[in-house]
Amino acid sequence: MSHSNNSRPIITHSNPKSPISEAYRTLRTNIDFSSIDASMRVMMLTSAGPGEGKSTTTTNLAVAYAQADKKVLVIDADMRKPTMHHTFLKTNRRGLSNVIAGQATADEVILETQVNNLFLMTAGPIPPNPSEMLSSKKMTAMLEELKETFDMIIIDTPPALAVTDAQIVATKCDGVLLVVDYGRVKREAAIKVKSNLEHVNAKLIGVVLNNVDRKSGENYYYYYYGNEQKEEK
Questions:
Q1: How does pLDDT run across 19-48, given as a tens digit for each residue?
Q2: CA distances in angstroms from 159 to 18, 29, 80, 110, 203, listed in the order given
Q3: Are the C-beta atoms of 57 and 208 separated by less than 8 Å?
Q4: pTM for the whole thing?
Q5: In 125-218, which ranges are continuous DSSP H helix?
Q6: What is the spatial distance between Cα 46 and Cα 50, in angstroms, rounded to a whole number?
């Protein structure tokens, strides 16, 4: 069901001139420069654990690409605890799970958003077998078809240490962005996620540090990769 208000304002859309919005545009530019020799059409974001700002980063990065005149699709591939429909105030009645199950086509479930050039595929009803659905040939075929329509596809996945979903999706993407809460995640956890992704030959294109303490003397990193809001994931 849709909601009457948004507890997760999309800052790159609501306040595009803010320093935080500029940080997401800088992130977009860095990603583009990192993929000069390879096509970056399907990108995935994950984190070690919940609450690190992964879905918030997904949303704002997608808006930054849409503002650069790219036709962008956000796919909520967290079929265990989906959140994107809340962010964009959309229904989750039909989505990714329906497409993979053959109950709907991608065109039937893709939704327009309040942001020009930005579209959304919600997770859909929670299935009993998310990992199996994400690893299916149907998922791979769907992404290939969507690349004919969209310039950039950005996929939000569950935390990588909780379930194998992120590793599975990573094998179908051109690049992976790891979101890390600077003050919450231990170094060992981040290294474990990196190792898990490398094990499936994922292309890790970068790490976004969220919530860096400006008092710690690392103002530069806060400015460029900071996040003023926390997701509830």
A1: 889 989 999 998 888 776 677 899 999 998
A2: 28, 25, 11, 24, 17
A3: yes
A4: 0.86
A5: 130-134, 137-146, 165-170, 187-199
A6: 10
Question: In this structure, what are the phi and psi dihedrals at residue 109, rounded to the nearest 5 degrees?
Answer: -110, -10
pLDDT given at position 184? 67
Helix or strand or coil: residue 89? coil
The token duo for 182 is: 């600077």
Interior angle at CA 191, CA 197 and CA 154, nearest 5: 40
Length of the chain: 233
d(CA 110, CA 32): 25
Name the strand (E) or helix (H) holding 46.
Answer: strand 42-47
Alpha helices by DSSP H, listed for 18-125, are 19-34, 54-67, 84-87, 96-100, 106-109
- The count of other CB atoms within 10 Å of the CB of residue 118 is 24
Indicate the residue type of 98: N
Instruction: Give the amino acid at 118.
Output: L
